[in-house]
Amino acid sequence: MAAPKPKEPLAQRILSLEDVKALIGAAKTQRERTSLALMYGCGLRVSELCGLTWDDLQPRDDGGQATVYGKGSKTRVVLIPAVLWRRLVSVSCGASTDAVFVGSTGRALERTMVHRLIKDCASRAGVSEKASSHWLRHSHATHAILRGRRPVPASAVSQADGSDQSRPESDLALGDDQSPTSLKRAQLPTQ
């Protein structure tokens, strides 16, 4: 009988902001960098990224918003900061599919492709070999908390405590200069 696998504390699954930047910067193409930046910057699950279509995206102010379909068939709206929105729009050139992110076959990215991308980028960046899409999500939430932002949907908070939340669901520290998830040009490598 094998010994039980030791638990990995949550704190060990949170990348520093420098590691997140390095991981995203290690991507080989603009499309790859944009997909990783979107996962981190919006706290997306890998399935939400893979299922994202151009119809799910809408411009909003200087940036945009995405309607994502996630775990438990739940729908949520996340805000996309202006810099990331421009990058996202730039990867649409010549898209022959409704999927925002496609693989070399021209079909929508699959989860395994994204997992492999993250592992490859982590290796090139010298980031923990255990880094994963979920680590980006944990890192997003932790960085938002550290900056005094609420990393949970306002709708969940208002349902739980009966309060009236006027902030948009994904006020996840996106787009403000004090946030690690604002994805300012200075924070993320350009091509």
Q: What is the name of the CATH architecture?
A: Orthogonal Bundle
Largest sheet, described in full?
Answer: 3 strands, antiparallel
Give the overall average pLDDT: 77
Shape: globular
Span from first to last CA? Answer: 50 Å
List keywords for this structure.
7 helices; three-stranded antiparallel sheet; alpha+beta; hpI Integrase, Chain A; disordered C terminus; 191 residues; single chain
Task: Give your account of this protein's structure.
By secondary structure, the protein is α+β, with helices and mostly antiparallel strands. The chain has a single domain (13-161), classed as Orthogonal Bundle (hpI Integrase, Chain A), CATH 1.10.443. It has seven helices and three strands; from the N terminus they run H-H-H-E-E-E-H-H-H-H. Strands 1-2-3 form a three-stranded antiparallel beta sheet. The protein is globular and about 50 Å long. It starts with 16 loop residues before the first helix and ends in a 30-residue tail after the last helix.
Layout of helices and strands:
Layout: H1 17-25, H2 30-42, H3 46-50, E1 57-60, E2 63-70, E3 74-80, H4 82-90, H5 111-125, H6 133-146, H7 154-161
Antiparallel strand pairs: 1-2, 2-3
Helix pairs in contact: 1-2, 1-5, 2-6
